[in-house]
Amino acid sequence: MAGNDEIRATAQGTAPVPLSVLDLVTVGAGRTATDALRTSVEIAKLAENRGFNRYWVAEHHSMPGVASSSPAVILAHLAAHTERIRLGSGGVMLPNHAPLVIAEQFGTLEAMAPGRIDLGLGRAPGTDGATAAALRRTDRLNEGADDFPQQLAELTRFLDDDFPDGHPYARIHAVPGPVQATSPGGVQSPHRPPIWLLGSSGFSARLAGVLGLPFAFAHHFSAQNTVPALDLYRESFKPSAVLSSPYALIGVSALAADEEREARRQVLAAALNMVRLRTGRPGLVPTPEEAETYEFSPMEREFVDSWNSNVIHGTADEVRAGLDDLQKRTGADELMLTANAHTAEIRLRSYELVADAYGLPLG
What we know:
Blueprint: E1 19-23, H1 33-49, E2 54-57, H2 71-79, E3 86-93, H3 99-112, E4 117-122, H4 129-136, H5 141-146, H6 148-160, H7 179-182, E5 195-199, H8 202-211, E6 215-217, H9 226-236, E7 248-256, H10 260-278, H11 288-293, H12 298-308, E8 312-314, H13 316-330, E9 334-338, H14 344-357
Parallel strand pairs: 1-2, 1-9, 2-3, 3-4, 4-5, 5-6, 6-7, 7-8, 7-9
Helix pairs in contact: 1-14, 2-3, 3-6, 8-9, 10-12, 13-14
């Protein structure tokens, strides 16, 4: 079972806590999914070379501007191009999948990159209701979310290969996995991907606390719930074999640019993309030029202003100050940054500027 050492990390440079990366594998207008995945490799390499702690990808479906429908496949690709940085899902939406399948996928990833894999799990579908129904082949979507604790328990037992005698799955094993160590001549890796629970409300916060698991909160799209959820997590926490004390990570939208105006332009384009998504018109991430000429309705403008108020953006110094303030307000143990922009070069430059602002190590 994974323990503290695979979860807790040490802050680098002058950063108040460890810094990590959340990648949505965004596809900009005029670009392809191939372009987006190549950018992910470039960002992962930069993150590794500059002392970022972990690199996660998030499961989404039926969104033209987000090419991360298959986290395990992307993580295998990233594992082949990196050597040290932790890689994981932020997250896999467990109700969309059979627990055995996820145990097999992440057991395989662990075999590819021993000691570097995180398994972050969410209970939302990562898409709209119709797409979720197609994924799960059922219209009873609430059933999947309500069964999340049971699915989580089943997945954990597959990962640990410890179903009790008499259980229907006692003779079923997730491979690669611990069963290989019990086979004649078998030698099993000492690592098992640590499970993280992800959330944007109180449900997973409380569950993570009760189970003594690390918790990742989606501050980047549910900022108003961040502090209450983290408080609930810490209040509910019970020490476990995984963690002796709480460990909370928060996802943060943060974009640094050489000029403040450029940061504002890129952030506006990302906000227009969210407007379209929230109004049932998902598409590719628009260019800043398109966003600047777009005529926002009063309701859309209100949404954009509200959305961008939770995006830390500007020059490197402004982003550093914003991240420092957010960490102080929330007490987060780790900040996971997602830089949403139309252009690959802007995203790469953002992470580089943040690394420079905190004096993160080179190489």
